[in-house]
Amino acid sequence: MTRLGIVNIVLFIFSALPAHARYVDNGGLIGGYVERIVGSSGEMHRIQGDCVSACTMWLGHKPVCVYPDTVLWFHGAVDSSGHISKIGNIALMAFYPKALKAYLISHHWLQSAQLHSISGLGMLRFGIPLCRGVSQ
Fold it and tell me: 112: which of 61, 76, 133, 134 is 20 to 30 A away, CA to CA?
């Protein structure tokens, strides 16, 4: 089984946990996120729990915040044949703050399907503010 297959199984297990468990947004197709992000223009978006893959595109939404215990999971965009998509990566990068783009490029995180994480507190260095109040 491929690494991506194992990651998908783990993410499926996390998404099947009871409602009181940690919130997980497993990502999905980039186009679906573009529609949701554009459609919620001006409304505060709070990123909480685990934000995986295309979910990280919310970092480009204004206004947005993250909770300290949020974990954002990054990897390269993957096309339908399982290969890294340069066009998909360009679309992802269009939604990231400049400092985050530089970090992802310097660490080569978008060159593979391997997941890499940054905590909500870690997002402060990229200019993403923390949410006020308790996560739901």
Answer: 61
Contacts (Cβ under 8 Å, ≥6 apart) of 52: 11, 24, 25, 26, 27, 73, 115
Residues 25-50 have pLDDT tens digits of: 999 999 999 999 989 888 899 999 99
Planar angle of CA 22, 78, 41, nearest 5 degrees: 60
Indicate the DSSP class of residue 130. Answer: B
Report strand pairing: 64-66 vs 71-74. unpaired
Q: Which two tokens stand for residue 16?
A: 């099947």
Contacting residues for 130 by C-beta, under 8 A, at least 6 apart: 65, 66, 67, 68, 120, 121, 124
